Amino acid sequence: LQLHHSGRYHCGGWVSFGMLPWRESEPVTVTVHGVPLSGVSLLAQPPSGQVALGDLLVLSCTVTTGTAPLSFSWHREGSAAPLGTGPRLELHVGDKDSGLYQCRVTDSNSTAESPLLHITVL
Questions:
Q1: How do residues 14-59 score in pLDDT, each as one tens digit?
Q2: Which residues pair with 111 in a beta bridge?
Q3: Which SUPFAM superfamilies does the UniProt record give (predicted)?
Q4: Where are the domains of the chain?
Q5: How far apart are CA 44 and CA 81, in angstroms?
Q6: Backbone angles phi, psi at 3, to 5 degrees
């Protein structure tokens, strides 16, 4: 099922192999609910969270459950302005990029955040 399948449904048919007139059931309302977001996690490459100045840092955000479409945003030190969007963030790190990173995931009903990940630029 998808969220757009919510609506009113009924069935119909002929009773006794077409000998009696067409009959329809009373309509029923079906409401499809989204799956709440959960299990948001963040992975880093290199996995230690320590990266040399100028090297590439790759962060990946995954979601265990949620109802698509999902939107991803990346934040450092709790900033409101995102560093990027999408489930993956790639940075060639500079001397000011050490800190706590987090992924936020949003669906049509809610927002969930990954745990904070400490990145150290060496």
A1: 776 656 777 888 999 998 877 788 899 999 999 989 999 999 999 9
A2: 106
A3: Immunoglobulin (SSF48726)
A4: 38-121
A5: 21
A6: -60, -35
